[in-house]
Specification:
Layout: H1 11-16, E1 24-25, E2 28-29, H2 43-55, H3 66-86, H4 100-115, E3 121-125, H5 134-143, E4 146-150, H6 163-166, E5 171-176, H7 188-199, H8 210-213, E6 227-230, E7 233-237
Parallel strand pairs: 3-4, 3-5
Antiparallel strand pairs: 1-2, 5-7, 6-7
Helix pairs in contact: 4-5
Length: about 240
């Protein structure tokens, strides 16, 4: 259920990358657990932002002057680097949003509004964060779709034995967290193979917090015809 961090990780060096972790809280070194709400920034990010505001600050894709050209070039280079990091086929697959909640709502409104209809089923799990729950509840209300949930056992793991009974023909979308924000349960590697074998659907690892710790592949297990990578969760669409 839980993956233990490798012993080779130098956590002191990791903390040194984040200037804010030198702060004190109640007389003790700061320990920060609220990254899902606001992530702290490493020195490399802080320096990059400072360079941008000092040398390139201008509208992206909206001007012909020198600063706008610099900003646009830097912006698109960052998109290409993200594509390479997550294993996307091209930079065109990378869409920047302001955060996780906006990303999931974008999928729910754009993709969901077109492909989810009355009588369809949206499958979630009982361990979902609200950002991967409320958008689908609202989508179900708008379209007449129904929600189903994979239950959670008393030990904090998903009851995957019930998964096969939930993968019925009317299921159009399965959205689930990669790592539970409340339990720390890591689920994607267990759900994806089970789902693919029993329902012939492709899936994509979540490019949210997983990408911080180790590269996540944005390439689908099969053709990308039926998968939507979604921050803080994996969305698989029939």
């Amino acid at each position: 259920m839980h993956k233990i961090a490798a012993k080779a990780v130098d956590w002191h060096a990791v903390r040194e990358d984040f200037p804010i972790l030198r702060e004190q809280a109640h007389g003790h070194p700061l320990i920060y657990f609220d990254s899902a709400a606001t992530s702290q920034k490493p020195r490399a990010i802080i320096d990059a932002l400072r360079r941008y505001y000092e040398h390139e600050n201008a509208n992206v894709h909206r001007g012909l002057h020198t600063l706008s050209s610099r900003a646009t070039e830097a912006y698109e280079k960052s998109r290409q680097r993200v594509a390479e990091y997550v294993g996307a086929a091209s930079a065109d697959e990378i869409i920047f949003t302001r955060g996780t909640t906006e990303s999931i709502n974008l999928v729910a409104h754009a993709w969901g509004g077109k492909f989810i209809h009355e009588g369809d089923v949206i499958l979630l799990t009982e361990m979902e964060h609200h950002s991967n729950l409320v958008p689908w509840q609202l989508l179900a209300e708008r379209t007449g779709a129904r929600l189903r949930f994979v239950p959670v056992r008393d030990d904090g793991t998903l009851d995957l034995e019930q998964l096969s009974s939930l993968l019925t023909p009317e299921l159009k979308l399965f959205a689930f967290t990669h790592i539970s924000n409340s339990l720390g349960t890591i689920r994607a590697r267990d759900i994806c193979p089970s789902m693919c074998r029993s329902w012939d659907v492709t899936t994509s690892p979540s490019p949210d917090t997983k990408c911080v710790a180790r590269p996540a592949s944005a390439r689908f297990m099969d053709e990308p015809r039926s998968s939507i990578p979604c921050p803080r969760g994996t969305v698989a669409a029939k």
